[in-house]
Structures are given as C-alpha cells and as structure tokens.
TrEMBL record:
Gene3D superfamilies: Ribonuclease Z/Hydroxyacylglutathione hydrolase-like (3.60.15.10). Residues 98-151 form the Metallo-beta-lactamase domain. It comes from the Bacteria. PANTHER family: METALLO-BETA-LACTAMASE SUPERFAMILY PROTEIN, METALLO-BETA-LACTAMASE SUPERFAMILY PROTEIN (AFU_ORTHOLOGUE AFUA_3G07630). GO terms for molecular function: transferase activity. This is 7, 8-dihydropterin-6-yl-methyl-4-(Beta-D-ribofuranosyl)aminobenzene 5'-phosphate synthase. It comes from Enterovirga rhinocerotis. Pfam families: Lactamase_B.
Length: 370
C-alpha cells in the first residue's frame, strides 16, 4: 500500500507554518487501499531504550528467538554506561534476500539517553529508511527532536515519520491527584516541518519501507479495556495541537477527557516460516486487540512473537490473569514484555506460559528468523 498527500487544513496557523517551511509538505495521509503484507527472511531488534538494565542476563534461545544481551552495557570506556528511563526505543533491521531495511521505532523519553545508548551500542541510525512513532506520549517521542538535531543531515532527504493518526499532536496532561494535572507535552509538527521530515498519518494499515506494516487504528474487539493513563486536550493551543477540524463539536468543548488512544498503532513484520512479530510499544488499547488487528489486516494467523509494552503494570490481579489467558489463546511462540508491561505481567505470563516468555534489558538484541 502506498500513501497519498492530503491537503486537509490541520490547525489554525497552518498556512504560516507551511510558509515558514518554504513550501515543504509536512503531512501526508495513508490511503485506505488493501495492503499486500511483505514477508522478510529475518528481523533483528536492538532495544535502545527501556526501563532497566540487567548485566547478568545470558544469551538464550526461546522458541526460535535468539536473545543476545549487551553484557555490562559499557562501551570501550568503562566510565560509560547505558542509560535507562521510562520509555521505549527500538532499532529494527530486516532482511529479505539481499535487500536490507532499517526502521527506528519510538525515541524514548529524552534525547540524552537515546544518543548515549546509540553511541555505546554502535548502531548506525543513518541507515534508517523510515521513522515510526507509536503514539503521542512523551516517553515515546521525547528523544525525537534531539535525535533529528544530531542525525537529520545524514538521514535520507525524503525520510518520513509514520504516525498512527492526527491525535499524535494533541496536548496531554497526567493526573496528579485531587483533580490536579501535570503537563505531559505534545508532539509539535512545527519541529518536524523545520527538520523537513514529512509525517504520514497511518490511520489505515500501511506498509513501511517495503518490509514492515502498521495495523492502522486498532479495533476494540476483545475483553480488554484502557487502564488509567493520560488525559487529552483536543484542538489547537495557539499554533500547535491537533487539528480541530478532525474532531466533532462535542470533542472540542475544551474539557480534558480520558485518553482513548484512537491514534495508537502497532508495528509488525511477517517473518518467513515463523509468522507475525507484533510490536506494541505501549498497548493502551489492548495487546490482544493489537494482535487481532495485525492478523486481520495481514491475513496471517500464526503469531511468532508479541513484543513491547502492554500497559498492564497497573492491572488488578484478576484482570491480569484474564488478559494473560487471552494472550495464551493467541498461541504465540514467544512473548517479550518491555516498558509498561509490568513485573506483574512477566510473572503471570511465566506462570501461565512458562516456555514462551523471554525477558530482555536495555541494550538487548533479538533475532527472529534465520
């Protein structure tokens, strides 16, 4: 599937933005055509940012997935060390015959941690064929501007950032108790335009760099529910924010509403002879829903791996047991919890699927396929 430029008016002041960007088109919208899901021979995933580092993890293979830990997590200089933070960033390298592709998925909470770890792990971000942001939370896009400040001149001139939808640009706040909120920021499209990075809104399933695909908006078809997280302001704030024309009058009453994550999407690969690798960076709309959506849009039933953040850290014990049982019904070869999945999820998944859980750390390298 391709994507087409859509000149929808997206915020007040957009004309000024486009003028300041010297006519650079900063928004495209993926079309609604049925996608032809690509197959890759191999996928390698490097965990650039996660919340913890364990230097005692050993190399292991679980159900055909190889895990190579980073050891001490230091570079040649013993004074350097991998940085951990609440957030996620993944460096994805896929291979099909002689054709290689590289994708950066999410950028952690801050650029200092991301850039530090890129240097220590010696990955080459200038190889990136595409950038993806999973959703509009700061712990997934916070390092993006600093990343672009350092590497934009070495990236392809036509590099694109694939986002799940307009809602990525809405302003968000976090509950602080007693009816109070703290600012949680927003992804500012003006910064992307200044870096000459085109944003593609992938509200429908979209093929990325010819090797990966995104789910598009994820249907809520399982028993899952959105657990407590941010609130969202729809509409514009001065010249930033999400497109007011994209929402109904009822959504634009100026009230902060619980975030329903209509823009969240999962990134997926179909690995030859193995099946789907579904990467849910946070899984607010449900990890089971995310996998079901990937199966539906790809036509591939076999699930090789479910990877990433599943947002079950705040889950109650009964709800957690129920969701892990639903994950088990999907019959994945391996489940790899990261970020917001929670220690409670890892323990419950180990209890219900003892042979199918793989624990990683910041700096881990995972290999799927031959």
């Amino acid at each position: 599937m391709g994507y087409t430029t859509d000149r929808r008016s997206f915020i007040k002041g957009a004309a000024a933005l486009m003028s300041s960007a010297a006519g650079f088109s900063c928004i495209e919208v993926a079309n609604a055509a049925t996608i032809e899901v690509p197959t890759v021979d191999r996928l390698a995933m490097r965990v650039l940012i996660d919340s913890a580092h364990d230097q005692f993890l050993k190399p292991v293979t679980v159900q055909g997935v190889r895990h190579i830990p980073p050891g001490s997590g230091r570079g040649a200089d013993y004074r350097q060390v991998l940085h951990n933070q609440w957030g996620l960033s993944l460096f994805l390298e896929s291979q099909r015959a002689d054709e290689a592709r590289t994708i950066m998925l999410d950028f952690g909470y801050s650029p200092d941690a991301l850039l530090n770890n890129i240097g220590i792990l010696k990955v080459d971000p200038t190889k990136a064929d595409a950038l993806i942001v999973s959703h509009g939370h700061h712990d997934h896009y916070g390092g993006l501007n600093g990343f672009l400040d350092k590497y934009r001149s070495s990236l392809p001139q036509d590099i694109k950032l694939f986002a799940g939808g307009e809602d990525n640009f809405c302003h968000r706040v976090s509950p602080a108790g007693q009816g109070q909120f703290t600012d949680f920021g927003q992804l500012d499209r003006r910064d992307l335009a200044a870096q000459k990075v085109t944003t593609v809104l992938c509200e429908t399933p979209t093929v990325i760099a010819g090797h990966a695909f995104t789910t598009g908006q994820i249907k809520r078809s399982s028993v899952e529910r959105i657990l407590p997280n941010t609130f969202v302001d729809r509409g514009t704030l001065e010249t930033t924010g999400c497109n007011a024309d994209h929402y109904t009058p009822a959504e634009l009453l100026g009230k902060r509403v619980p975030d329903d994550h209509v823009h969240e999407h999962a990134t997926c690969f179909n690995v030859k002879d193995r099946g789907l690798v579904v990467i849910s960076s946070c899984g607010h709309v449900g990890i089971v829903n995310s996998v079901l959506q990937a199966q539906a849009v790809s036509g591939v039933k076999k699930v090789h791996a479910i990877v990433g953040g599943f947002h079950l850290g705040p889950a109650s014990p009964d709800y957690l047991k129920e969701i892990v049982a639903e994950v088990k019904k999907l019959e994945p070869d391996v489940v790899i919890p990261m970020h917001c999945s929670g220690l409670n999820f890892a323990l419950e998944a180990k209890a219900q699927m003892p042979d199918n859980v793989l624990i990683t750390t910041t700096g881990s390298r995972l290999v799927f396929g031959a």
